[in-house]
Amino acid sequence: MDLELGDTHSELRKLARSWVDKEVVPHATEWDRAEAVDPAIVGRLGAMGFLGIGVSEEFGGSDGDALAYCVLLEELGRGDSAVRGIVSVSLGLVAKSIATYGTREQKQRFLPRLCAGEALGCFALTEPGTGSDAANLTTKAVRDGNDWVLSGSKMFITNGTRADVALVFGRTGGPGPKDVTAFLVPTDSPGFTGTEIKGKLGLRGQATAELTFDQVRVPDSLRLGDEGTGFKIAMAALDKGRMGVAAGCVGLAQACLEAAVRYASEREQFGKPIASYQLVQELLADIAVEVDAARLLTWRVADLVDRGKPFGTEASMAKLFASEVAVKAANNAIQVFGGYGYIDEYPVSKYLRDARVLTLYEGTSQIQKLLIGRALTGVNAIV
Ligand code: CAA
């Protein structure tokens, strides 16, 4: 069941799918068990142009619109959410923020290497004490001559131990969203430490880290955007980020559907394939309907982005729905697999573990509901 795409996007889907089936799917279980994807995957993603979609060719990108980005992230999400997450963060949150707000020098310095997969980016917003309440972050950035001195820590940072540049949000004045500023911090700066967080439920192949800044000195030339605009830069990045996560969720749910349909046709009980039982068909039908609905919600966001229309509320809707669908699809797929779904010889147990974080990161389901409710009523129930 596929939805109609134009030639360019269909070609991209075909290319991404065959690459993922060859380079990602056969290794996903092994990377999950090892708690690390092969680091060489980053260079391979770059060589395919997958780390440059939406960034101008002038700075090493591969151009492409929001729909192309969603198609790519869906295919990566169908293969391995850990790999999809690397792209979501390095390209979607970091490179695209540099492309939007960076000076020419910043673009020339960072974008070609990020797009080629010669360097990785991480997005350092969340802190040990501020997850949903991002506007109250406490990492300090204090001006000292032509430099800024950063101190504090960040938590649950995707790519944190692998990144070459961290997009760090620091407080440059009083409390609240207006005194937050963004910085591009090379991760080899003295005082910068990344510590990997092990033992995650899912996304085990992806490097997730705690970062600490002990008097990290950053030149003012690496400030991204104006002083005090950091919170808006973070929120705008997350609006598009939520579209990308939604696309990744669609891919994961699609993988659940394909695995469950295949297994239901092969597995026999009571002398016939379990696909012939109505209650198994119900599990499959529920996934299929919800995957398509999630895909349409996601593509609506891409369409709004590509036409230059406001899309934040629609991105929250897509992210909310698609992430919940991914969890449900994985759960249904395990039900179809029975006991075999509970061991990692088959992919569906990993799908459920990987899906679980999707309702948490880049804004929890509860935050998405509050954003949608605020847009509907004009009443802010967040604070
Ligand atoms: N785009 C641009 N500006 C925005 C914006 C947006 N989408 N959303 C808010 N702003 C602006 C507002 O206009 C406001 O500015 P003005 O006063 O000048 O109008 C300012 O930012 C403050 O906005 P709010 O009053 O809405 O701020 P808030 O504190 O009430 O609520 C929130 C904000 C929606 C709860 C927000 O904090 C939020 O989204 N929280 C969730 C955080 C999150 O998603 N974290 C994800 C971490 S990153 C991650 O997961 C990546 C990874 O590694 C996988």
Protein model, in words:
The chain contains eleven helices and ten strands. The chain has a four-stranded mixed sheet. Strands 2-3-7-6 form a four-stranded antiparallel sheet, with helices on one face. Strands 9-10 form a two-stranded antiparallel ribbon. The radius of gyration is 21 Å and the shape is globular. The protein has three domains: 114 residues, Butyryl-Coa Dehydrogenase, subunit A, domain 1 (Orthogonal Bundle); 105 residues, Butyryl-CoA Dehydrogenase, subunit A, domain 2 (Beta Barrel); 146 residues, Butyryl-CoA Dehydrogenase, subunit A, domain 3 (Up-down Bundle). Acetoacetyl-coenzyme A (CAA) binds next to strand 3, helix 7 and helix 11.
Characteristic key phrases:
383 residues; alpha+beta; Butyryl-Coa Dehydrogenase, subunit A, domain 1; Butyryl-CoA Dehydrogenase, subunit A, domain 2; Butyryl-CoA Dehydrogenase, subunit A, domain 3; four-stranded mixed sheet; four-stranded antiparallel sheet; 10 strands; globular; binds acetoacetyl-coenzyme A
